[in-house]
Write a structure and sequence with these properties.
Layout: E1 11-15, E2 19-25, E3 34-41, H1 47-50, E4 57-59, E5 66-68, H2 74-95, E6 102-106, H3 108-117, H4 120-125, E7 126-131, H5 139-146
Helix pairs in contact: 2-3
């Protein structure tokens, strides 16, 4: 991975569908020093606790045939809602002038959801997207991976 230049005061948002770390560069572009600004987490219950017991049934209007209805993936829905809330938080922060720039680090699937939720303000502040899952790493390890 090419070395990223993280602006002084710039944010690095490291997230997945259940956790987000908002890190701020307290250093400069040459010697970044990422510090934790905020942590967002949502409960991650197993699917069996948030889903219906079994798929529903549909009856055709002609004949007596029945077929099962595909079950909704509630876990996936919760992840998408969480990521939409993160994108909304970033929009408010950029509008309020809390950060001059953003770098988003997330697994490819989460980046895809976030992209659909970015406002024009977030798009303007966005300097890079890194498709990696670093959310469980310590902050210094994240910094090492991004700035090597």
């Amino acid at each position: 991975m090419a070395e990223l230049k993280i602006d002084s005061g710039g944010w690095v948002v490291v997230c997945d569908g259940a956790k987000a770390l908002v890190l701020e560069n307290a250093g400069n572009r040459m010697r970044p020093n990422l510090t934790t600004r905020q942590v967002f987490e949502q409960p991650d219950p197993p699917d069996r606790e948030i889903s219906a017991d079994k798929p529903g049934r549909a009856i055709n209007s002609v004949g007596e045939r029945r077929s099962s209805v595909e079950q909704v993936d509630r876990h996936d829905q919760e992840e998408q809602r969480f990521l939409a809330r993160i994108a909304d938080h970033l929009d408010k922060a950029v509008l309020a002038g809390e950060t001059p720039s953003l770098i988003v680090v997330a697994p490819p699937r989460a980046i895809g959801v976030l992209r659909r939720c970015y406002s024009s303000h977030v798009r303007q502040a966005l300097r890079a997207e890194v498709e990696k899952d670093f959310v469980k790493l310590p902050v210094k390890e994240i910094e090492r991976h991004l700035c090597q």
